[in-house]
């Protein structure tokens, strides 16, 4: 390893760093501060020939009207990481993530480093959006695989069988046997038609666009009763009202996902779904509730499965400025509640 002047390197880091670095004593007097700190902090009220007190800038370690000095970091001998509010040159109250550590116990000198909280939040938001995008893409790919597998195993194979049978019709000389084969083929094609229709409904029901949420949900619940023997007690006061397309889609998908989760994990054969329009302090809202009295789960353990279903419900609700709450208890059941601000669509 090459030998360099450590003092020169440390001085270069101190002066060129994009984070604020200050050296302070036990009384809070600033002994040295780097260019970033001098550029950011409001020093106009202080004599630069004298020490500057950090308390003149600090607005407390808590977000309140008055600084909270009861647990001042200047009194700590241990390394601390915390959020602090400082007064800037623009006169604003800015939040920072601070690190404070005593580096010279004999003279009570500590180093105080500050990074704007807004920059960290931007980075965290970027990472969150990146992770969200990755999970959405993966969920889409998993769903495409499932649909592709259903089409290949359920539709393609059956159509191939019907095609082979029909090619043999021309060799049949027994009219009674031919009629039987034709009837079997008709039944197979009818079954395939229902199968494809079900896949189409899963992807996006036409009734959602044509008739609205209420009609689409009623159709979906009837289909679920036929498919799974599940009874859905559906209650609503919408009376065929229509809303923005994105709101209707979100409500339908969230209820659909919550009901499917109840079918898979609750262990019971009756689910309650409540969809109501009501007044709130800020206007009209849609309230949705999906409740079962089944197995439930511990909230701290999280749901069974990948968790992408619940994650997707939260993201869908957030996309229309709504709120989603999920509560569950083992042996008691699970309740999903959502609130979405709405305006009725004029047709």
From TrEMBL:
[4Fe-4S] cluster binds at residues 55, 58, 69, 72. InterPro entries: HATPase_C_sf, HATPase_dom, His_kinase_dom, Sensor_HK_TwoCompSys, Sig_transdc_His_kin-like_C, Sig_transdc_His_kin_sub3_dim/P, Sig_transdc_His_kinase_NreB. Its EC number is 2.7.13.3. Its main location: cytoplasm. Pfam families: HATPase_c, HisKA_3. Member of the two-component regulatory system NreB/NreC involved in the control of dissimilatory nitrate/nitrite reduction in response to oxygen. NreB functions as a direct oxygen sensor histidine kinase which is autophosphorylated, in the absence of oxygen, probably at the conserved histidine residue, and transfers its phosphate group probably to a conserved aspartate residue of NreC. NreB/NreC activates the expression of the nitrate (narGHJI) and nitrite (nir) reductase operons, as well as the putative nitrate transporter gene narT. This is Sensor histidine kinase. It comes from Lacicoccus alkaliphilus DSM 16010.
């Amino acid at each position: 390893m090459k030998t360099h002047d450590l003092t020169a390197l440390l001085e270069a880091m101190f002066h060129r760093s994009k984070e604020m670095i200050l050296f302070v004593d036990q009384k809070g007097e600033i002994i040295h501060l780097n260019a970033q700190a001098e550029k950011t902090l409001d020093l106009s009220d202080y004599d630069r020939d004298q020490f500057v007190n950090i308390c003149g800038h600090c607005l407390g370690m808590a977000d309140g009207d008055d600084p909270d000095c009861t647990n001042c970091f200047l009194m700590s001998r241990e390394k601390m990481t915390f959020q602090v509010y400082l007064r800037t040159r623009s006169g604003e109250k800015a939040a920072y993530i601070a690190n404070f550590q005593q580096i010279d116990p004999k003279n009570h000198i500590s180093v105080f480093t500050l990074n704007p909280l807004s920059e960290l939040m931007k980075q965290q938001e970027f990472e969150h959006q990146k992770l969200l995008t990755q999970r959405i893409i993966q969920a889409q790919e998993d769903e495409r695989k499932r649909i592709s597998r259903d089409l290949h195993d359920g539709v393609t194979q059956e159509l191939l069988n019907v095609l082979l049978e029909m090619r043999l019709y021309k060799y049949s000389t027994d009219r009674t046997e031919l009629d039987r084969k034709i009837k079997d083929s008709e039944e197979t094609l009818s079954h395939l038609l229902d199968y494809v229709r079900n896949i189409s409904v899963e992807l996006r029901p036409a009734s959602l666009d044509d008739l609205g949420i209420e009609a689409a949900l009623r159709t979906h619940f009837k289909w679920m009763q036929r498919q799974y023997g599940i009874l859905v007690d559906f209650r609503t006061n919408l009376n065929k009202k229509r809303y923005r397309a994105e709101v209707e889609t979100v409500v339908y998908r969230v209820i659909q996902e919550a009901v499917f989760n109840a079918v898979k994990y609750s262990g019971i054969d009756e689910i309650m779904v409540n969809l109501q329009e009501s007044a709130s302090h800020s206007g009209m809202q849609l309230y949705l509730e999906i409740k079962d009295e089944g197995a439930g789960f511990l909230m701290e353990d999280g749901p069974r499965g990948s968790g992408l279903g619940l994650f997707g419900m939260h993201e869908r609700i957030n996309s229309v400025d709504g709120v989603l709450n999920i509560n569950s208890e083992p042996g008691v059941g699970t309740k999903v509640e959502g609130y979405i601000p709405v305006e009725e669509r004029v047709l």
